[in-house]
Specification:
With about 325 residues, the protein is of the alpha/beta class. Helices cover about 45% and strands about 15% of the residues. A six-stranded parallel beta sheet has the order 1-11-8-7-5-6. It has a three-stranded parallel beta sheet with strand order 3-2-4, sandwiched between helices. It has a two-stranded antiparallel sheet with strand order 9-10. It is globular and about 60 Å long. The structure holds guanine (GUN).
Length: about 325
């Protein structure tokens, strides 16, 4: 049997490249202004996945020379308390970037996330989620592009994968990934299709893609029948799997990932099925693919926000 295997796109290596370009910029800002650029991160509650993401953001920021101010609110905190904290960070001269980790506790209500993103000063909105920044992104003049989609573009560029004149298919239409991803690909002259849970015959639409971005949030959803042979597949999914039978069925008995599962009781799996590696031309692993790039772009955006604020006087 002739089973080829996709080229793996190493997110850790590419993120390290980006961070190496951010660190000297942070040092230069710090010596010029007598203070480091500062990122305020707000974490509400104790969602286990958010705890890990935020810990990684704090560590990466500190390693790059940023000041990172982690502000925590209990899961029982109210939306008013959270909005008050955002207003304090907006008013603080020393804070250049503000990030409120999503998702927020369900008890805050359905519209809480949007209300919080609306409240962040657009000049400090390092996630790029404020409507003003979303508007700028749609017009192709984003100053602070959303971190995950921007990281995907960096990944493609730095891996020598052309975007212009390709057909890109994005599965998922979230405000955080799917929609901004589609905009960035469009600005780079891809022909873009956005699919979602109500798209008829999703595999046949996905199979048209030269670049397929999976951002659905369902473990191993994208199977080989979604993938044109040789396509580039970008896996944005971060799904914690706790079911032993599911892990064995995905990776096969004896696989390293199964051993990892047996040791820890859970593993993180992307939106792309492992068998896609036999069809795709290039593929991002999970973990170690898009995740590290999201953080690298966050650092880059924080420096950009600090420089723009300093230039404004
Ligand atoms: N939750 C998952 N991804 C993100 C992100 O990029 N920014 C924020 N604020 N929350 C998230």
């Amino acid at each position: 049997m002739n089973v080829s295997s996709a080229r793996l796109l190493d997110g850790n290596r590419i993120a390290a490249e980006i961070r190496q370009s951010v660190t000297p910029g942070v040092a230069a800002f710090t010596s010029r202004h007598g203070r480091a650029p500062q990122l305020g991160i707000v974490l509400v509650g104790e969602d286990p996945a958010s705890e890990i993401y935020v810990r990684n953001k704090v560590r990466a920021g500190s390693e790059s020379g940023l000041l990172v101010d982690l502000q925590r609110l209990p899961a029982t905190g109210t939306l008013d308390e959270l909005l008050q904290l955002v207003r304090q960070l907006n008013a603080s001269d020393g804070h250049d970037g503000i990030l409120v980790q999503a998702p927020l506790p369900a008890a805050m209500g359905r519209s809480a996330t949007q209300r919080v993103f609306d409240a962040i000063d657009p000049a400090k909105d390092v996630d790029g989620f404020h409507p003003t920044n979303v508007g700028r992104l749609v017009q192709g003049r984003a100053h602070l592009p959303p971190c995950t989609p921007s990281g995907v573009i960096e990944m493609l560029d730095r891996s020598g994968i052309a975007i212009a004149r390709t057909h890109a298919v994005v599965i998922g239409r979230s405000d955080i990934v799917g929609k901004p991803m589609a905009m960035l690909l469009l600005q780079r002259d891809a022909t873009v299709t956005v699919c979602h849970s109500k798209t008829p015959d999703l595999p046949s639409v996905a199979r048209q893609a030269d670049i397929l971005v999976a951002a659905i949030g369902r473990a191993a959803f994208v199977t080989p029948d979604f993938v044109k042979p040789g396509a580039t597949v970008i896996d944005v999914g971060i799904n914690r799997v706790t079911d032993a039978a599911q892990v064995t069925s995905l990776f096969g008995a004896g696989a390293q990932r199964v051993a990892d599962f047996q040791k820890r009781g859970s593993i993180v799996v992307g939106d792309v099925h492992p068998a896609v590696a036999e069809v795709a031309g290039a593929l991002t692993p999970v973990p170690g693919g898009v995740g590290p790039l999201t953080i690298a772009v966050l650092l880059k955006n924080t420096l950009a926000a600090a420089e723009a604020r300093a230039a404004e006087g």
